[in-house]
Amino acid sequence: MTEHPAENQYPTGIGTSDLHTIQVLGHDLAGELMGRVGFAELAYWLATKRRPTPGQLRVFEAVLVSLADHGFTPTAIAARLTLYSAPDSLQGAIAAGLLGGGSRFLGVTEDTGKYLHDVLGGLGDTDAYTDVDWDAAARDALTAARAARRIVPGLGHPNHKEGDPRTPVIFAIAAEEGMLGPHLKLFAALGRVAPEMLGRALPLNGAGVAGAALADAGLPLPMLRGFALLARTAGLIGQLAEELESPIAPAVYDEVDRHVLYTPPVNPEN
Amino acid sequence: MTEHPAENQYPTGIGTSDLHTIQVLGHDLAGELMGRVGFAELAYWLATKRRPTPGQLRVFEAVLVSLADHGFTPTAIAARLTLYSAPDSLQGAIAAGLLGGGSRFLGVTEDTGKYLHDVLGGLGDTDAYTDVDWDAAARDALTAARAARRIVPGLGHPNHKEGDPRTPVIFAIAAEEGMLGPHLKLFAALGRVAPEMLGRALPLNGAGVAGAALADAGLPLPMLRGFALLARTAGLIGQLAEELESPIAPAVYDEVDRHVLYTPPVNPEN
Amino acid sequence: MTEHPAENQYPTGIGTSDLHTIQVLGHDLAGELMGRVGFAELAYWLATKRRPTPGQLRVFEAVLVSLADHGFTPTAIAARLTLYSAPDSLQGAIAAGLLGGGSRFLGVTEDTGKYLHDVLGGLGDTDAYTDVDWDAAARDALTAARAARRIVPGLGHPNHKEGDPRTPVIFAIAAEEGMLGPHLKLFAALGRVAPEMLGRALPLNGAGVAGAALADAGLPLPMLRGFALLARTAGLIGQLAEELESPIAPAVYDEVDRHVLYTPPVNPEN
Amino acid sequence: MTEHPAENQYPTGIGTSDLHTIQVLGHDLAGELMGRVGFAELAYWLATKRRPTPGQLRVFEAVLVSLADHGFTPTAIAARLTLYSAPDSLQGAIAAGLLGGGSRFLGVTEDTGKYLHDVLGGLGDTDAYTDVDWDAAARDALTAARAARRIVPGLGHPNHKEGDPRTPVIFAIAAEEGMLGPHLKLFAALGRVAPEMLGRALPLNGAGVAGAALADAGLPLPMLRGFALLARTAGLIGQLAEELESPIAPAVYDEVDRHVLYTPPVNPEN
Fold first, then answer.
1. Fold classification of C107-223 (topology level)
2. Confidence class of residue A205 from pLDDT cuts 50, 70 and 90?
3. C12 forms bridges with which residues in the sheet?
4. Does B82 contact D72 at a Cβ distance shorter than 8 Å?
5. Has domain A53-246 been given CATH number 2.60.120.200?
6. Beta pairing class for B260-262 and D260-262
7. Which subunits count as partners of chain C given 3+ CB pairs below 8 Å?
8. What is the pTM of this model?
9. Inter-chain contact A100–C85, Cβ cutoff 8 Å?
10. Record's Gene3D superfamilies (chains A, B, C, D) (predicted)?
């Protein structure tokens, strides 16, 4: 408790404010950003400290739209049940919904981006790669994954077994915008070679292609899950607004409560 | 446990999916929404089940931008400390940051919207109101609040004591877009009459005007806090991305740890 | 940014540590507390900075046991769904379960304690009160609540319509331990006079009597919800341990997913 | 959406209720558990579906006491900041505090238990092991960890560099209660051989020995982090009760706010 420095400092490049102005990212929030910069644009900028190009922004928005809502997912149901139990705390219901954003559902976006990044890290310069090169790289990657008994993220979907409808649209938008980078190209190659390598078609799922597209659009890998969570926040607000109007949580609770199969532990000493 | 209906049903108008398509709000997500609808536009639509007009959308985006980040707020610090403690769970750090979105900070947006709505509910038809009428209504409202010893939300700001720079910009954007509705007009009147009624200028703060603008833009009152939380999610992602690059949480922890003043309870029987 | 004091200080009476010792509540954690103080005893002590008497402790433990688990509540289901979605983050699943600890379910404990405290505040000295006096006070309180159209917390239970089995046990334990204080006495009187005042029996529910008992046992009113949450944390750990062995979350998700009734908004312009 | 089974069932062995009774773990909550079973005892029982022996319970309570509070940890500060921001939602502040219960701080308990379990799985029958055998096993484990560049959890402590005061107490209590099982014995051996193997003393930390003791006391490995979270819930309630009386969150916020070093991104095009 002795070595107190002359003065602590807490550095940030995001924002600060004084009596008359609010600075965000080096700009005057009121005079330069509000009404001139879109919300998704600002979200990109905050995460990267770079303003997106129009192409990056269009891909980013398309990905956010693709991830915003998937109907009655476990996380949407959890958020609705939480609002039912604690209607006074909307932030708690949203937080509960986001807390399900882990490895099984929302994690695919991040896992895919990181996986592709790792594979790319072993490839050297891919600027001149043709599809044939990408396919060779994808075969090597699948061989390595099989040897390591590692699952390749982003392949296959529990419902969209014949192809996730979001996948070709993200590829098309990225192509239109000149945003088909190495992550998307490698991911496409994985989809092409998967049938021959794995003995069955495993379509590229939309959460995985989202991760590849975000990486190519310049978003930071450690935050990819965060963008899935941002998108999902919009979806959860929709779910919770609907829950207030037309609740399902009481019916879910009732369904479970009516069909409890109670099988207590049978150790007579307990 | 007897009256099981023939079949449960869980109604929703938000989304569903089958083998080949994902429906969101009655539209094909891949074919009709991705790349064509912006993220903020979809967020509005999910919350209201109405697609925003261009004017509603511009106000909505401006408000989200205004609320996204306020620097090192207590919630931003809490999120950073949580990431420091649990770096493996980005969703937990975001959730921790959102959980501070309660009455003291983010609640102002919702509280102001609801307060204005309540006052408007007692006014009858205000379509032909002039500024003089609005000022009279505002005086009545402040008189009633004083009698009830109730604080009027949205007035005053701890830092921007001479005026919140966001306030005039939101009014200006709403005016440009034809979105100056009764909530904003009443709120403006409250600002005009506050000095004479309260004996001091209490500038309209940006969180309060955000609530008024969202209400006039057609967003549902019970969800106003939700939009502040959506905006803040983008800000928290920025804060957490920066924390990964340039952490402050260890310094905050160290600062507190070095300056603990330990004063244990002195009851000798304990 | 000018007036930096010579040194910040962060006072606490809970704990601190240095190279060789950890202090908790003025005691050496390792030498004086571990193995000598029970966990519930420490929880009481931390919350109040007073070590509980044996009677206070027995009531406290009985209340925690009474609140620990209520089967498949909405919060338990939400926690299980969250673990299913994010199996890597046990803390997230527990947090999601606790976030439902709001007004509708767990809030009753706190609401009842506070309500009784408020009524007692208007009664003056009740040391010499007989049951007749308490009944009179209870009648006045119910009359006042009716006039204010205010619901009295802790009365009635959705399932235990003929009496909550926990209620008489808590009263009996409190009586055995000399812990029948004014909160429990007033609550008992409310139960006695409710039939004549309200025209029907409204049994005192277990969550409400828990609040009264905690207040009489010396726990702070603003934290009563916290003890319900502490108890529930133990229940949630049980629910989640069982979920790992014998999951129900996939079946809940499947139930809802199979019975979606999709009714998208029908506005043709959208 | 076709194959609806005749009836869903949701199995549980924890609890259920009907009009007159509440069952927990096969016992009548009101008649058999309340007032007769302690809170920590019930917590153990819920997690394992086995009632603890007196020795298991004493170790369990000692471990919970050891983990309940560590002063102004980052999680305690985060919880206090959250309560400051959202004073209306105690459950949110507790949840925010628990969300920091991840790998860096609370994770050690679980990581150590699992690590020891993994090593033990490779040893075969250790019933007749002497200290010499355990030391040999520990040397092999440290060699393997070094080869795999894997950190051994539970060794070393940032503050208690000369020994964590909790460690010998947990070993002593376990020995008194006949609860020195293979996890604790292996962990002790790791502490003995660490200096010769690693070239420096790395004391066994209290969070690690907690994990070993919980495993020997029969608690399930996947839930070890959960018990650290249960203990911490009691600590957080203490922290938050104190925050209500004697807040530090405003000072933490003020400290950071006064010492912001704003360094916005300098790209002129942005």
1. Cytochrome p450-Terp; domain 2 (1.10.230)
2. very high
3. B262
4. no
5. no
6. unpaired
7. A, B, D
8. 0.95
9. yes
10. Citrate Synthase, domain 1 (1.10.580.10), Cytochrome P450-Terp, domain 2 (1.10.230.10)
